TrEMBL record:
Protein's UniProt name: DUF4193 domain-containing protein
Biased segments, Basic and acidic residues type: 24-34
Region (Disordered): 1-35
Taxonomy of the source species: Bacteria, Bacillati, Actinomycetota, Actinomycetes, Micromonosporales
Length: 96
């Protein structure tokens, strides 16, 4: 079973992994302590998260010309799923 050597580190939480995490956290805490609330401390927060958050909140896709918002389920759907108009509102096939 030679593959065990390769699989073991992935399936079980290994010491090196947890160790490095602890080290990172320790380091971050120390930096935050030393630098208090300086801007530099912000660099130690994983940069990806903020960017992701911003993208999620700013990426608002308007209803496209070939789309409509269903008055029943309030989903924006493709015109191909348009079933008709009910009480002045577009209705999709699912809600019709
Ligand atoms: Zn619907």
């Amino acid at each position: 079973m030679a593959a065990v050597d390769y699989d073991a580190p992935r399936t079980a939480p290994t010491e090196p992994e947890t160790e490095s995490l602890d080290l990172l956290q320790e380091r971050r805490e120390r930096k935050t302590d030393d630098l208090a609330d300086t801007d530099f401390a912000d660099d130690y927060i994983l940069p990806g998260f903020d960017v992701l958050d911003e993208e999620l909140s700013t990426t608002v896709v308007p209803v496209q010309p070939d789309e409509f918002r269903c008055g029943g389920c309030f989903l924006v759907l493709h015109r191909g799923l348009h079933a008709g108009v009910h009480r002045g509102q577009d209705i999709c096939r699912d809600c019709a």
